[in-house]
Amino acid sequence: MTSRLLHAAAVAAAVVLTSLVPRTAAGAQGAATEVTFYKDVVGILEDNCLACHRPGEMAPMSFATYEETRPWARSIREAVINREMPPWFAEAGHRPFLNDRTLDDGELRTLVRWVENGAPAGDPADAPEPREWVDGWNLQPDMIVEMPIDFPVPAEGTINYQNVKVKVDFPEDVWVVAAEMRAGNPEVVHHMRANVIPPDSEFMKDAEYGVAYENGDPRLGPRDPRVDLLGKYNPGLGPQDFAAFESAKLVPAGSDIVFNLHYTASGNATTDRSKVGLVFATEPPKKRYYVDEGPTAFNLAIPPGDRNAQVVSELTTTQPMELLYLQPHMHLRGKDMEYQLHYPDGTSETIFKGVWNFDWQLGYDLEKPIDIPVGTRMVVIAHYDNSANNPYNPDPAELVVWGPQNWHEMQNCFIGVLIDPDIDPTSIFEPSGPSLLPRGVSGPTLASLEE
Ligand code: HEC
């Protein structure tokens, strides 16, 4: 991935909410007439591409004007035909997602026809009303929590995950309806999370405020479900809205926030001081929006050289809930992930299946929340390529186990759920099936359950 791509992560996040609203019906017409940039193409680009392809955003080239777009016409044709752009990794045919930017056939055909006809400009008077974009915060924060000390980012080399505890000590319980993380230095922030650390959590209990620690990733295990994910920042991810279902996120009184940061060197020594903005609810919500690590394979083992190593994880629900959000997570050897629900009545369904792409780390917002009865098993099946054929593989000779750094692996799928605000979220899931097995030399796999 280019450093520009990294650079844009913040902003791409910002524009996602607005880009969900289709503004034009461009692409539908024009079978007989000539397809032109201003009449047919500009609207498609605005709806599906400009979130990233405009000045100051993550993509290295802008498609904001005809002059900027024209030299890229052939690449655009290739990228859309091959479905490389817009980036989206969920296989069709499972549950629909709200943030799916995939071009429909009409839009794709219009772009291709425009390029094949010589990419003409047409008449600027045909263009739709230009779209307005937000720069800076996409929400109006009631509170901004910022790292108190600059983190020094070296010019080169791999930078381990960093954890920075920031003192907030919320004076009372607060309900948060939206959060947005902004990179202090978007050129070096690859992705990050803001975790809520309640006062009774052991996690980074003795850490000094503001100081960056390499150890202390909450996901090193054992799970501490009291550590809730408040905000996140990834290439292509938006600000997070927790209020869509009369819902909000709880931050218990006395909590602090830990920033979990992944930096990538940009060639220049620099610094970063990132922040998270929070919007508070004016009244208590009907439902609590809670983000869990989801099914997690702390016991994973990926054999050296294995081209298609399967790793399975599982949780069983102990409370009724609604499932809203999925975000697969793996590292450099990840290939694909599937998320299955096995209902207590014996039926089951695959709700998500997709290839893994470390550069994007996309999250998937379900179009409709899924009702999850007590006793539902959530099963995640992932595959890894630990062979020398995988160009991203740090070391094909390694037996890879769970760990925080990129040369370790992870296998989990974050999930956003709605629960009764009176329920303690620490007991809404129990690891089950393969996730109860001790670590072996591979797996755990679906087959290891039958042994
Ligand atoms: C979520 C952000 C995002 C969206 C949305 C997006 N792109 Fe991109 N695009 C990128 C980034 C980042 C790159 C450069 C890195 C890369 O190639 O992966 C890129 C690269 C490209 C390239 C260059 C590929 C090459 O050959 O080098 C083309 C062409 C392109 N995008 C077209 C499009 C079109 C057309 C759309 C809309 C239909 C679109 N993109 C939507 C982020 C995005």
Explain the overall architecture.
This protein is α+β, with helices and mostly antiparallel strands and 451 residues long. It has 3 domains: 24-126, no CATH class; 138-285, Copper type II, ascorbate-dependent monooxygenase, N-terminal domain (Jelly Rolls, Sandwich), CATH 2.60.120.310; 286-451, Sandwich (Jelly Rolls). The chain is 12% helix and 30% strand. The protein has 5 helices and 23 strands. Strands 1, 4, 8, 9, 12, 13, 16, 19 and 22 form a 9-stranded mixed beta sheet that branches. A 5-stranded antiparallel beta sheet has the order 6-3-10-5-7. Helix 2 (37-48) packs across helix 5 and helix 4 (73-81) runs antiparallel to helix 5. The longest helix has 17 residues, at 3-19. The chain is globular. It starts with a helix and ends in a 20-residue tail after the last strand. 44% of the residues are buried. The model is unreliable at 1-32 and 218-222 (pLDDT under 50). Heme C (HEC) is lined by residues 2, 5, 12, 48-49, 51-53, 58-60, 72, 75-76, 79-80, 85-87, 101, 103, 236.
Give a summary of the structure in a few sentences.
With 451 residues, the protein is α+β, with helices and mostly antiparallel strands. The chain has helices at residues 3-19, 37-48, 66-69, 73-81, 105-116, and strands at 143-146, 151-153, 162-166, 174-182, 189-197, 212-213, 228-233, 240-241, 247-251, 256-263, 270-272, 275-280, 287-292, 301-302, 309-317, 321-329, 334-342, 348-355, 364-372, 377-384, 400-401, 412-419, 429-431.
Topology:
Blueprint: H1 3-19, H2 37-48, H3 66-69, H4 73-81, H5 105-116, E1 143-146, E2 151-153, E3 162-166, E4 174-182, E5 189-197, E6 212-213, E7 228-233, E8 240-241, E9 247-251, E10 256-263, E11 270-272, E12 275-280, E13 287-292, E14 301-302, E15 309-317, E16 321-329, E17 334-342, E18 348-355, E19 364-372, E20 377-384, E21 400-401, E22 412-419, E23 429-431
Helix pairs in contact: 2-5, 4-5
The structure holds heme C (HEC).
